[in-house]
Amino acid sequence: MILDSHPQNLEKAVRAVQRGQLVAMPTETVYGLAANALSDEAVVKIFEVKGRPRFNPLIVHVPSLQDILSFAELPSCYEHFAKAFWPGPVTLVLKRRKEASLSLLVTAGLETVAVRIPHHPEALNLLKAVGLPLAAPSANKSGKVSPTTSTHVRDAFTEQEVAYVLEGGACEIGVESTILDLSLKEPTLLRPGGLSVEEMEAFLGKKIKQPQMFSHINAPGQLESHYAPSLPVRLNALNLQEGEMLLGFGSVETDFNLSKSGNLREAAANLFKMLRQLDEVKNIKRIAVSPIPEEGLGRAINDRLRRAAAPREGLSG
Ligand code: TXA
Ligand code: MG
Fold this sequence. Notes:
The protein is of the alpha/beta class and 317 residues long. The chain has helices at residues 7-18, 40-50, 65-68, 79-85, 104-107, 121-130, 150-156, 197-204, 264-280, 298-309; strands at residues 2-3, 23-25, 32-36, 59-61, 72-73, 90-96, 112-116, 134-135, 164-166, 178-181, 188-191, 233-234, 244-248, 256-257, 286-289. Strands 1, 2, 3, 4, 5, 6, 7, 8, 9, 10 and 11 form an eleven-stranded mixed sheet that branches. The longest helix is centred in the C-terminal third of the chain and has 17 residues, at 264-280. Residues 137-138, 146, 317 line the site of magnesium ion.
């Protein structure tokens, strides 16, 4: 099921996508489960195999800005922004063109569409070779931790569900893309992620709106519990309680340290892998997590950890 990088393997993956099958592709954030975004039949498989609520829309991936313009409107004042950060770990929510031929399942009936140009070479190779926009959520079962290696994906799905997984190594960033809504009056953050708010604000020369509560209407995927390991999670732990194992950050003693030197990039890249590893540790009842600073990639890390610690209802994405 896992295909290493080889022109013949890429061709296999391309044909599978064109036949309407699902192919998992590496991106710099997390692995995505890709389907032809123009085909209802292909897109519906994503919802089926993930067990994802149908009202939760998907991100459309393309290889270049030019490819976006047939289905979405990029306001001219944001062209520079798009060119500066794409390809990269940011998704833009744009007005969907009326004549867009995207499957309506992709946008779940919204008048906007989420778009991203990833920079992982294997993702770009697939997108260019297939010549279709690809809808791709993270390649995990709904509500579970996102995959950052090809084996995470292979272990979650059967070959009937996912035809191939393109090998792309461990994801460099390790948390999902930042989602910025440009369809509103003010640029608005819908999900903190791989591109920091600070970097975007420095480029735009203004503040980005950050809703206190991520509303279900604006960002239907932002249901509370998400990215959850099987074990319960306790945040901001300064010491260990009985039955706990520590997911550390900085100079603390534990087998699972996101970054001993306190580097937030390293911590993001280790987050999902270590949550999975902790889930496998025998005889522990809970994962305790060291405090993580709320800045740079720390916002995305804390967002995912809060969801992992949230009450387990209404799982999503
Ligand atoms: O890094 C990523 O973004 C990965 C890789 C594979 O690209 N994808 C990913 O997709 O994280 P997913 O489906 O797990 O998360 C997409 C999020 C969901 O919360 C969804 O609700 C939101 O994007 N979304 C999609 N379309 C939207 C729209 N039109 N308006 C607002 N939110 C939207
Ligand atoms: Mg997801």
